[in-house]
Amino acid sequence: MQDELQFVPLSELAWINPSLPKALPDKDKTVSFIAMADVSEGGQWTSRQIRRVRDVGFGYTAFQEEDVLFAKITPCMENGKGCHARDLINGVGFGSTEFHVLRAKPGTSTRYLYHWSQSVNLRLKAESMMTGSAGQQRVPSEFFDLYLIPNLPSHEQRRIAAVLDALDEAIAATEALVAKLTLMRQGLLHDLLTRGLDEHGDLRDPERHPQQFKESEMGRVPRGWGVKTVAECCIINNHLRLPISAEERNKIRGPYPYYGPTGIVDFIDHYRISGKFALIGEDGDHFLKYNTWDMTILVNGDFNVNNHAHVISGTECCLTEWFFNFFRHRDITLYLSRQGAGRFKLNKATLSRLPMALPKVEEQKAIISFLDAYVSRLHTEQAYLAKLRQMKRGLMDDLLTGRVRVPPAESAEALETIS
Length: 419
Description:
By secondary structure, this protein is an alpha+beta fold. It has helices at 53-56, 110-117, 120-128, 143-146, 154-195, 230-233, 246-251, 320-329, 332-338, 348-353, 361-400, 411-418, and strands at residues 7-9, 14-16, 30-34, 49-52, 61-64, 68-71, 82-84, 92-95, 99-104, 148-150, 213-216, 219-222, 226-229, 235-236, 256-260, 263-267, 273-281, 296-305, 309-313, 355-358.
């Protein structure tokens, strides 16, 4: 397995932009169609279209079963767009003219070729060879005549592809689980913050036990809950914000996070807030992009925040965590639009008047504990997904370049050996 590697141009293992080897189906027959929007940045064919031959016979890129599509235009190429064209209608497909088509030559594994098309190293090199004007740069077909890859025997190509395919399957399964848990979290958050938990730790059921609920300004809530404004149950600490310029921020760096309109960056160490607070964004242009799910984050410790976020702390009747979760659940923009507020703008006066459904502190703690346990599982799966993606990046670099050779074993065993 440690024999000296021979490197050859990728075009020696694949035909680049070849013609279809056979006549097209009848013009009334259907074929697959792949637009650039139909492929993901992870190299997956995510949306399947079907068109008649008469509508795609001219002006589109033609390909056949098992061909590999490689986006050639910026920024799609840099982002990893492309796919392995499999299960095509009538074995033929058409698509965007911004695809290069790679067709494996005899002795080349199509999956090996596909994984090479997704290689970060290959795409970085392709980016350096783009031609054309800014915004319309493309990878020329000659790139594949110049980019060298190891000429591994076909049986080793297949083993490499099997290892990477096994990782792809694990990543896809974990992505699906994370997506399911994220969706379930939103539903769970809604249920807990509108129905609460009874004395047995179970969700209250408004259908079976309507007497446990009442109507309020917030809609139907558990009978034992109150409704108060934010100003009545929380403390707005906006005097702690730091309305200083980006130039000043960039002069002095330190170990404490700075929460600003574009995310979290390192910040100065002698201006800081210490404690537990919920931060809520001011409007659609200035909000805390800690994640893509909500506009409120919870911090505990030393930090700084700019003047486009409200700084909230809890009181004896409202835990800071309750405010945080309540405003992750609350659709602020929808509520404000119902109040005739026009463009979404959550100033201090508006925030102060917003109503909150408020259970007793003991129930707040029980609900928060319930949510924390669920979110902990979600974070575990997210961390596992990040680990799988990192493993794949490392293995692609090692295996495709021949730096690590795959032993003659089943893909699962080979994956276990290498990792």
